[in-house]
């Protein structure tokens, strides 16, 4: 192998492969320096049998080689250095090389080749403390888990201990058990009558009929009953959970209850006013009003349900009138001087007078924005009797209406026209009264639109007759003239959906210019002649059309005395300006008023869309009061036929498809009608015979169906049985 090339075997000389040093290696450079004269530990570094002389006098390892001289050998390798490690967070046992251990390298201390064992170093105290802390935390967590888990398992699926509803303990019960207990102990409380207090009066309501109910399920659902959370367990062990009883509310029923209460509690504010009775000023004293705050009242009732048993105060607001009584009295003094004579209206060379009576009927003093009172004139109604004298009727607007053709309503369109500018005239008259100005006022014309448009009328749903009523009379009396006159004025009149019809508002004051004539009416318990007397029969006829049509009654007043031609408890009177007769079209359809008359009676029919079938039920007459007998010798005496007074109840029953929807009761009290005889002055001093005793079974003509009252035998006695205006 030697002859084949370079040998791959290691050289015989161990140092053969080491390059020779470029300068001598000083003694001790590869280990500790030996003492003088001593042989270096470990002997010669030359192989056995190799003489150092071959390197010369300064050869490697020669003790006699001078210091600093080159030995011709390569420099010794540096001892291995430990690897530089990055600093660790924990203390690290230092690693030392074999060369750093004494006695492990040639030339080391003592020349020993014995290896020393590594020593174990204890970890620092900080690590020991961390381990102890972790053990403590783990123990605490385990104990807490056990302390939570055991009661949580016991409480799971039940009401947590300490759970209460109005001091009723339901803790530890299942949901079913808790519900049964609450129903048992709160059932009576939920059913008790609630007493409400408003404006000094008490009102009782039934919670069930008012839509209030104790909701047991919702009450229990407030409490956790599944596997409890740690905080729930803690609360159950250390405290209580108070639950408010929950209620369910039928909003419609509660709203209906509050609305009914408002009708009993509310009082409309009465503003101070000065009007006229005839031509004499009459003072209307201002009066506070009140109103139930319905939304807040409903909330109060809901909150009080299932609460302490006590009177519940409802929120009521007081409404103050705009002016005081003193201001009204001052205005009355001014009003007494406001009507020295008539007012003349002029237009295009024509003129018409407004009499003092007409001015007084439409003039009043109302509160203004400055805290005082100012004159107010209703020109629209005041000019109804004179407008035709100033404006050609062919120019007047025409209201749409319906004609009945073949039993079906057919629309007759209306159109706009020209008329007196009533707003300007109202301002002019008010200014004249306030400043005592000229009593001649020129009027201007304005375009006047019909009250109802043709499109509105088409959408009224007028398709069938919904009610009709007839009352009889004897032919050819002055009162009959008035009945037929008002019937003509109202024939074809349309009442809008939601509109309130006012007879005085539509007809105005009765006057001779429109065909009304004087006829008897009752005033202060006696009969007197008045223009328009007798139209209360028309009002009674319309009242019954309203009654059987199912529409809402707003204002009506029964006659003071009972009149046999009318159904007892279902009739009404009227006067100017009060009392009025008013009713509301509370349907979503329009109402067409159709009137007709003959020599023996008057009829009022309503056309619309039928909603109800109405039945009327009357009680027997009770509280019979005997009449008195009197005589009078005055020039204006009108005889009256005596008649007992009585009380009667009438129920209005609303039905749909044969099922009763509701019924409304109304009680009417009739005073006894005096038996008055008109006699000469000498006969008036003769004592009157006593009246017969009151007898519930007294067979008067009023009690006999179809009978004609004896008062109808003469004009005077017929008038005695009528009350007008």
Distinctive features:
disordered C terminus, Ubiquitin-like (UB roll), elongated, alpha+beta, single chain, disordered N terminus, four-stranded antiparallel β-sheet, 725 residues
Please explain how this structure is put together.
There is one protein chain. 24% of the residues lie in helices and 24% in strands. It has 725 residues and is α+β, with helices and mostly antiparallel strands. Among the domains are: 338-458, Ubiquitin-like (UB roll), CATH 3.10.20; 461-725, no CATH class. The strands form 14 sheets. It has a four-stranded antiparallel sheet. Strands 31, 32, 34 and 35 form a four-stranded antiparallel sheet that branches. Strands 2-1-6 form a three-stranded mixed sheet, with helices on one face. A hairpin with a 2-residue loop joins strand 3 (194-198) and strand 4. The longest helix is centred in the N-terminal third of the chain and has 31 residues, at 125-155. The radius of gyration is 59 Å and the shape is elongated.
Unreliable runs, pLDDT <50, ≥5 residues? 1-7, 57-71, 693-725
Helix content: 10-25%
Average pLDDT for all residues: 79
Strand content: 15-25%
Instruction: Give the helix/strand class.
Output: alpha+beta
Tally of DSSP β-strands = 36
The major sheet is characterized as: 4 strands, antiparallel
Shape: elongated
Separation of the first and last Cα atoms: 159 Å
- Strand arrangement within the widest β-sheet reads 22-30-29-23
Over all CA atoms, what is the radius of gyration?
A: 59 Å
Annotation field: number of helices: 16
